[in-house]
Specification:
The chain is built from twelve helices and twelve strands. It is α/β, with parallel strands linked by helices. The protein has two domains: about 1-110 and about 255-354, Isopropylmalate Dehydrogenase (3-Layer(aba) Sandwich); about 130-255, Isopropylmalate Dehydrogenase (3-Layer(aba) Sandwich). The longest helix is centred in the first third of the chain and has 19 residues, at about 15-30. It is globular, with a radius of gyration of 20 Å. The structure holds 1,4-dihydronicotinamide adenine dinucleotide and magnesium ion (MG).
Length: about 350
């Protein structure tokens, strides 16, 4: 297959981890006889420095024409004092909005060799493997009015959803469950919120199209408890924007290793934006010590969700597992001092294993 991938390295450690992920993708293309073309574009602080804006029109256009987008990270202290429209993060928000990416997917999986990195007891986290599907472009963060009244002493935020916005994210939840262990927890607050009642109705309609998926309605507060007391309970969680924001950050600490976590932002067609969960880590930029695995596992999601390349995705994931199983890790992971490797070495270990 021929595929066009836009690379958005961004700032800080972004370029190093993006390069790592791209070289793994190139190896996949070589092994499985695909042709991947890579086009590099600017975003974030790097784009502000060169073009005076965080998301140049040329970058957005290239992304619209791509089959998939791989992003490093944006931001850093150099741009902290810029006005809001000249902040690196603005570029990322504009990109998600400009492409209509309404579904954010964050998988969290514990690796057997890294259980001691978790803040939770090993017997609780062992075997955790879950995916949070969060609605990204609606709900409380975008509803209007959102304002202060009565000289600021009254405040209003609006939780607004249209039926079609709920339908498409719920659909993504079911499709994700079909790609995994076919268990879906739909998380809401239907005992209080009107929006959650419509959410439940839609989930109950859609489940008829997915008879193989076991569906459970759960309330967000008890889900929050269960995520840390019994994380292996979950396969796929689908939820609205605010709940998903909070639950995905909660889930991200289960593994104890931020540098390992990937994410995807998707829409109804195959185009997706893939990026590690971590930021630009300016404290370690340029030192060849950043963990490239969050970016490499984001490339695994890219293969799976945008290209439908299941066996290629499985192969990279297995290679990463193998490398971790051999005890290797970057400095942010809890491995033996003699097994600590840098960004480039970790990447070449994965490529060799592949
Ligand atoms: P951060 O995720 O960049 O760093 C937090 C800590 O984790 C730091 O100590 C860092 O060294 C470490 N770390 C992060 N990724 C790592 C990796 N791959 N390997 C090894 N260690 C890693 O978050 P922080 O420090 O809050 O933000 C730094 C900058 O990144 C800020 O400008 C922030 O706005 C931006 N940011 C960007 C995001 C994005 O592009 N999606 C997400 C989060 C933050
Ligand atoms: Mg958050």
């Amino acid at each position: 297959m021929q595929k066009k991938i836009v690379l958005l390295p961004g700032d800080g450690i972004g370029p190093a981890v993006t390069e790592a992920a791209a070289s793994v993708l190139q190896q996949v293309a070589d092994i499985f006889s695909h042709t991947f073309t890579f086009q590099e574009k600017q975003i974030g602080g790097a784009a502000i420095d060169t073009f005076g804006e965080p998301l140049p029109a040329d970058t957005l256009q290239a992304c619209k024409e791509a089959d998939a987008i791989l992003l490093g990270a944006v931001g850093g202290p150099e741009w902290d004092r810029q006005p809001p429209h000249l902040r690196p993060e603005k570029g990322l928000l504009q990109l998600r909005k400009g492409l209509g990416l309404f579904a954010n997917l964050r998988p969290v999986k514990t690796f057997p060799s890294l259980l001691s990195s978790s803040p939770l007891k090993q017997e609780i986290v062992a075997g955790s493997d879950l995916l949070i599907v969060r609605e990204l472009t609606g709900g409380l963060y975008f509803g209007t009015p959102s304002e202060r009244r009565d000289e600021g002493q009254t405040v209003v935020d609006t939780l607004h959803y249209e039926r079609n916005e709920i339908e498409r994210i719920v659909e993504t939840g079911f499709q994700s469950a079909m790609l995994r262990n076919k268990r879906l927890a739909s998380v809401d607050k239907a005992n209080v919120l009107e929006s959650s009642k419509l959410w439940r109705e839609i989930v109950d309609e859609k489940r008829k199209d997915y008879p193989e998926v076991a569906v459970e309605h759960m309330l967000v507060d008890s889900t929050a408890m269960k995520l840390i007391t019994n994380p292996t309970y979950f396969d796929v969680i689908v939820t609205e924007n605010l709940f998903g924001d909070i639950l995905s950050d909660e889930a991200s600490v289960l593994t104890g290793s931020l540098g390992l976590l990937p994410s995807a932002s998707l829409r109804a067609d195959a185009l997706g934006l893939y990026e590690p969960v971590h930021g630009s880590a300016p404290d370690i930029a340029g030192k060849d010590i950043a963990n490239p695995l969050g970016a490499i596992l984001s490339a695994v999601m890219l293969l799976r969700y945008s290209f439908g390349m299941e066996k290629e995705a499985d192969a990279v994931e297995a290679a990463v597992n193998e490398v971790l199983q051999s005890g290797f890790g970057t400095q942010d992971m809890q491995v033996k001092p003699e097994s600590i490797v840098g960004t480039e070495k970790m990447t070449s270990l994965v490529i060799e294993q592949l």
